[in-house]
Amino acid sequence: MLEFLKNLFKKTPKVEKVDLASRFELIGRVGQGSMSKVWRARDPSTDRMYAIKVLDREKTRKLEERFL
After folding, report:
1. Rounded CA gap, 22 and 41, in Å?
2. How many CB atoms lie within 10 A of CB 16?
3. For the chain, what are the domain ranges?
4. Per-residue pLDDT of the chain in tens (68 residues, 90 and over written 9)
5. List of E strands, 1-68
6. Is the torsion defined by CA of 17, 46, 49, 28 positive or negative?
7. Sign of torsion over alpha carbons 15, 34, 58, 68
8. Which CATH class is domain 2-7+19-67?
9. Do 60 and 67 contact (CB within 8 A), yes or no?
């Protein structure tokens, strides 16, 4: 199990980065938890509303370190 977790965190996720500021208008914060904040946002190109969850980089890094 420990080896599985080590290998899991070694892998770099292949996630396309999104520049939130260029795509969405942040309206306001909806809420927050221990590791993230959730923002209400609008996509001007579609005029649709979204909830965007943004992870706290430092706290998620500490979580990874706990399992290694």
Report:
1. 12
2. 4
3. 2-7+19-67
4. 667 766 766 666 666 677 777 889 999 999 998 888 999 999 999 999 999 998 887 776 766 666 65
5. 25-32, 36-43, 48-55
6. positive
7. negative
8. alpha beta
9. no
Contact 43, 24 (CB under 8 A): yes
CA distance 48 to 50: 7
Residues 6+ apart with CB under 8 A from 20: 26, 41, 52, 54
Cα–Cα distance for residue pair 21/46, rounded to 1 Å: 16
Instruction: Say if residue 62 is exposed, middle or buried (CB neighbours under 10 Å; 0-12, 13-18, 19+).
Output: exposed
Two tokens at 16? 């396309």
What angle, 0 to 180 degrees and rounded to 10, lies between the N-to-C axes of helices 2-10 and 57-67?
140
